[in-house]
From TrEMBL:
InterPro entries: Beta-ketoacyl_synthase, Ketoacyl_synth_C, Ketoacyl_synth_N, PKS_Beta-ketoAc_synthase_dom, Thiolase-like. PANTHER family: 3-OXOACYL-[ACYL-CARRIER-PROTEIN] SYNTHASE, MITOCHONDRIAL, POLYKETIDE SYNTHASE-RELATED. This is 3-oxoacyl-ACP synthase. The keyword Transferase applies. SMART domains: PKS_KS (SM00825). The lineage of its organism: Bacteria, Bacillati, Actinomycetota, Actinomycetes, Micrococcales.
Amino acid sequence: MTRIVVTGIGLQAASGRTAAESWRSIMDGRSGIAPTTVVPTDGLISSMGGQVWGLPASPSKYVDRCHQLAMDAAREALEDSGVPADRGIRFAISLGTSLGGARSGQDFHDQWIRSGLRSANTGLLRHYPLHSVADQLASTFGLFGPRSVQSNACAAGAVAIAYAVELIELGTSDFVLAGGVDPLALLSFGGFSCLGALDHLSCAPYTRSSGLNLGEGAGFLVLETEQSALARGAVIHAEIAGYGLSADAHHATAPDPNGRGAVRAMESALEMAGLSASDIDYVNGHGTGTPANDSVERKVITHLRPGPPPPISSTKSMIGHTLGAAGAVEAVVSVLALMNQQIPPTHVPDGVEVPEGIDIVAGAGRDEELSTVVSNSFAFGGNNASLVIRARPTEPVAASSPRRGVVITGIGAIAGSAAKTADVRRHFQDSVPVFGSETVELEHFGTFVTAEIPSAALTAGINPQHLRRMDTLGRRAAIAAAQLLTRRKLTRDEATATGLFSATGTGPISTIEAFERELLETGTGNTRLFPNTVMNAAAGHVALLNKLQGPTATISAGGTSGISALHFASALIARGAADRIIVVAADESPAAMLAGYARIPGYLARTDSVPFGHSGRLLGGAGVAILLEGEGLAPTESVLGRLAGFGLTGDGSGAARLSEGSGAWARSFSLALADAGIGENDVDAIISAACGRDQIDQVEREALNLAGLATVPLTAPKSVFGDAGAASALLGVLQALWMGEDGRVPGSRVNPINAPSSLVSADGLDGDVSRTLVSSYEVGGSYQSVLVERTAQ
């Protein structure tokens, strides 16, 4: 195994504007929690929060507070690392966030409600998507490698660091800027207030445990191999020795009271690091201050090993709960603990008793000889993530085990009017659109056709008792997974160990809009809606319905999310950290989503989707599930194909733009072929990401030319399915498998004059289709492709 080290750190928190300033404040036990001034809290149960003070005024009204926090912490980490600026295409970004530019989205929504959609400023939405934070970082700092956004609620920052480890292990990148960011926002304040989870005083984790305080901040690490760091003379701060991910499959918001999922995450992280619980010197705990979380974590720590438990403390007691940033912020604090050989404390308010039987390092920090630190993050949806961080060890690196092959053994899908997997296949084969019946009416802008799923189709195969707790995004993910598991049946033990990786381009837009609208109009949030506003809620429902307790992650990076999820899941299976993982993608296109695009001339299609034909984007909805397994674990007849190669790249277009030409997209194609060990002439077909928006479609066309793929038969399935966000790329994988089975490339439903000459006509093309390249992109400058190889039966 490669030793992966930390050579740069950056931190923004209520404790300080730099890592060093924050460390001094934290070690002194000074709480930065106070009444917030950046969120309207009238009518909520608490105004207390961990606010970052002294943040300079934004140079533009369109730069969200989230992006400001991320930029400052990332700049500090990059400067600390000293990585040369010319390493951009080998420098990845792995970001964790729960809210992203939610504050900008709230401002747009407020204007819409108060003054009508025509008066709302769509410029505010440039920084609303979660991936826009990563796009801004890439553009500002010249980081043009793979780009991914993890959004597992409060575990997102830790999961982002986990994926960074895999990017370096696989050789996909030489350096990764890994971390997390979240701002204080009304969405989160209103949500936790309606749940009764906020403390009106300063929170007191592990002691009074009467509620949490929300915080804001950003934490970033620069990761690279030890060999790389030594070769360039960098200062090595610590090692990321292992990580573990797990799902409780217990409840949408509450942790498993027995803490079994948390224990599995910690044990997996220790196993990856080659360590045991007896090696832990300190645990930087999740420590939110809520009764359920604190009691479970105390139980886990006290039963982790024989004898006295390791000391544990909560950084959140001084900076608040920074949600998607928490795992990354606390990883930076853990690195600082190792650098300074000190344990940070838990702030205990005056008059609050300190519990016996567990060392929470109360009051002030202490000097301690530290070698191994575990940082825990537990989240809504029962998502658990643990990191093992070590001082730089002296023993030789253990030899890596051979990576095993990964195969596709099950599929399921629902898209538009196609309610079952067989229906989806038939629509693709016959080039018959799944849209036409579902429309969205927007005030002042008229009617738009969408490829949405009719609500009547979103109940099949879901336990009725659970159905009422699910929103539309969760239902389409659950239906796709149920169809997959009907075909590829797993034993109870197999299902329990199975992981679940989720991809969503924009998340539960309709649920967020409904919750926020009620909050803005009445000042009170809806307790039924709020748990489904997090990006990983859909995956949580799927895990609970099917008792899936293996590794879990949720990627929300726009249209490239599906291929990112496949890449991350494949890495775990190849390494032996999981035997099987279901990758599920789901997206929707409600009125709230179309509202953000309606004012852009020609952006949205009115009636039809014509890739390469200037129709505009026809947005849709879908749910797609793909089962990945380690080679040799599934019956031979279940093997459908494999993911033979990935190409993950980016450019500097910047948030809400696609302006840097076609070079990065072409590079993603070439990297996928190189990863698969084949050349351009070995590709039998290409599934295009073309969507009908000329500024996008022509960039892809030029990229195919640059990569030497201009003559390969090309199909544009968004003419049939519309643009279903993250689900589009996974639909492309299914289509690649079906083409290989049928020996035919179905034609695009339209063949406009200005389309590439290789675009297959409406009649289709017969021939042997064994290797298919699936293309995806996201505005902002992220491009990902995967080479799908059909298995001969």
